[in-house]
Amino acid sequence: MPTSADRATPADPAPPRLDLEVHDRAGFQAAVESTLAAAIARSARTLWWVDRDFADWPLDRPALIAALSAWLHLPLRRLVLLAEGFELMERAHPRFSAWRRDWTHAIDPRVPSDADRGPLPTLLIDDGPVVLELWQPDPPRGRTAADALAARTARERIDATLQRSTPDWPLRPLGF
What's the whole-model pTM score? Predict the structure, then answer.
């Protein structure tokens, strides 16, 4: 009887790696892409992205935007962004900024309340075991993992801040 290994072809994509150590900016960007691919591969319904300003994330890469588009086409998908503000993100990632206009029903950009102002961690978490966490922003140091406990702990770290956060990053400034 043939096994799944017998049916594999060289064209089959390799599963995304989730055991990456982050030691530099290029490693962080690769980790974002790998973590996102792993979350999408496991059919995550919700992704939480947390960062001070998302300036170092590879959000303008066409492959990343295409992967997010395909994922958001699925029912009940939601991307939550938590940042101190989105002005820098809009300038640093114009392709992503333009793309998100078509997905406002599924993307929830938020800023912490005044009571929660302070340094935000850098996290990419799904609703399961997938997590990317930076312990140090500059130079980036962190890891990716498929670790249910680490993912749950990361979600708990930001839960209260998210609950008190407010929507931000309107498509058009008021008055236009």
Answer: 0.87
